[in-house]
Amino acid sequence: DVDDLETALDVLAGPDAAAGTAWSLDLPPARHAGIAEFKVAVWLDEASCPIDRRCRDLLRGAADALADAGAQVSDTARPAFTFDKAVDTFMHLLSAAEAGTWTLAELDEVAASDSPPAGELGIWHAALRHREWLSWHERRLQQRARWAEFFREWDVVLLPVTPTAAIRHDHSRPQTARTVEVDGVARPYEDTIKWMGLTGVAWLPATVVPVGRVDGLPVGVQIAGPFLEDRTTLAVGRFLNEALGGFSPPAGF
User: Domain coordinates of the chain in residue numbers?
Assistant: First the structure.
């Protein structure tokens, strides 16, 4: 539960032994004490990464619980960039971070081509030259600045974690050939990481709490907040945990 998350944050966050001689971490408290004081943006769907209807209904219920408790809730407030641009930045930087997955020969071959191999966009991104990586990192920094502007007005934003509840593992084909079903439509497997990439690429803190179940499987809401304001996201998570019933382990656990 949120108490466990707060304990883990207190134990794990901060400098390592080498850096601890020069600096320490002092995370600010939550922005508000009462849930009615919070301003909450709600971002639950995108045409390029749709959310399962049943999951979206549960996420909507979380937003409604905040509104019913007096929080100011907006379905239209957004940072000054598009979902697709942020996800594109995330995908490029994620693949570059995974460059060690491929051999140098494979990366050199892709880097010398004019277009990505069919179905292999990941290795195409992983083969970025350093100057190209710096360009994508600059896009990340620009998006971080837009998020900072956004959070001057809004305290947190509610988002999906993934488009569906947990899916069956599929190791029968390459990852780029896998799909995930959303409302009966086959979607690219990479959709499963786009919503967490939207916030993760900008280094935002996010708290995930359960909001219900679909086919017996838990669905969580992602509560993202301003950089280094983890305790603000935890405060909203604590309220939702209490309002919606919190975590209950499945049978057998």
Answer: 2-7+34-166+174-244
103-140 pLDDT per residue, tens: 777 777 766 666 555 555 566 566 778 898 899 999 99
E strand segments, 4-75: 39-42, 72-74
In one letter, which amino acid is 169?
A: H
> What is d(CA 21, CA 143) in angstroms, rounded to the nearest whole number?
32
Residue 7 three-state SS? helix
The CATH H-level (homologous superfamily) assignment of domain 2-7+34-166+174-244 is Amidase signature (AS) domain (3.90.1300.10)
The answer to whether the CB of 218 falls within 8 A of the CB of 16 is no
* Residue of 76, 45, 67 lying closest to 198 (CA atoms): 45
Paired tokens of 151: 């959070």
Q: What is the DSSP letter of 175?
A: G
Q: Structure tokens of 149?
A: 């502007």
Q: Hey, what are 171's tokens?
A: 């190791």
Instruction: Confirm whether pTM is higher than 0.85.
Output: yes
